[in-house]
User: Fold this.
Amino acid sequence: MNNLFDSELKVINMGLEGFAETLKERGTKVIHVRWQPPAMGDEDILSLLDKLK
Amino acid sequence: MSKIDQANKEAVERMMKSRPVWVDIGRARDVIPGIKDNLFLHAGPPITWERMSGPLKGAIMGGLIYEGKAKNAEEAEKLASSGEIEFAPCHHYNSVGPMAGVITPSQMVFIIEDKEWGGYTYSNMNEGYGKVLRYGAFDDEVLKRLRWLDEVYAPVIKEAVHLAGGMDIKSIIAQALHMGDDGHNRNRATTSLFIRTIAPFVAETEWGRKTEYDAPRLDLSNVNEYFKGGKATAAAEVLAFMHSNDLTSLNAIMAACKSMALAAHGVENSTLVTTMARNGTDFGIRVSSTGDKWFTAPANVPDGLYFSGFKASDANPDIGDSVITETVGIGGFAMAAAPAIVNFIGGKPADAFDATNEMYEITVAENNNFNIPAMDFRGTPTGIDIRKVVEKNIVPRINTGIAHKEAGIGQVGAGIVKPPMEMFVEALKELAK
Assistant:
């Protein structure tokens, strides 16, 4: 764990892009992965999608 | 593979196999089945006169004056709201029209034949830039140009396409994607190829010797001083007009795209989108396996750059059938082929690649006709699956022109627009029944 904080920080950010941007502004190496929950987490729509597999 | 996946595979293969060829020109009432004298076609899903936006109302009023059914705007408005005139989507008649998309009974239309699956699709003549009917303008200059298009331009290219034995539009789109076009917002390459293909036959028409004719003459001196004074042949004027208008090919391309979309429609169990269209008030989609049912939601205002003197508050919500291009895998879906377009939204070429890459997330195939050189000739993302749109919360990417919200002003900018997610959700609910 201690080694992690001593070494250069490289971040993979998932979801909210704002976190990646803030780190980038501070000079941290970041790869942003666009991700969001399927159907924005709407249970009703997810059950419809299940029917249409 | 599930029965839905199998159906979508069949639908997208039918779409890509379609072979639209421009074969003829004709008068709408004579060639489009079902057209009658009091029926006016418009872009997008069905809409009543009362709910029409400014540019669509303007185009209908201009059309009524053009048809001789009204003498002025006041009479046209009264007639349009009287119930005597019927309005219907172009799509209900296998037709498409850019922006307001108004096709009146006596207007001349492109006739595209699907040489693979049979059947015909239609679109009107493109009027060029500035004040034009498709943006709701209808002053004397607009009406004069419409008359010239129907009485000179259309007969010339009709004779020319007969001499040429038809024009393969799919081949022109495929080549243009290698020349910096997307097939929707940038049409410089498609139009150049269109002109290059038809020009020898335009020269060969009887209009190639005709310097006098019974129709209003267009002032083409903005193209070249040579055309001042009306000494040129009609054929030369037609070629000069084509050259002055990068959108010359757009309507034929749209009708060809309609042909491809139609080929994918009506496949049982398919969840692919086969129509996307806007009327300036509502955005509407139709799905392969849900017949003629429209799923609609209020249209959004495009995000883009405005011509000098105009601003976002002048813009009308999204309008036009030209999104038929994205429906079959070009336009916004082929942005990576046309990085120059991102200038419209002040973006960078990398944004064009992002846009195309994102569209692979919601489509079921890579097009085997249309590809993008800068992406190692990868086929464009084709066949929008309702399930993927809803599951991933990614809507189709659309490039578009922007109309002024008031009738008669015209185009005020160009940019991109997002269709509303609600209608994809409604379609999903219907499919799950």
Observations:
- Residues 79 and 85 of chain B are 7 Å apart (CA to CA).
- The two ends of chain B are 21 Å apart (CA to CA).
- Residues 140-164 of chain B form the longest helix (25 residues).
- Chain B touches chain A through 13 residues (CB under 8 Å).
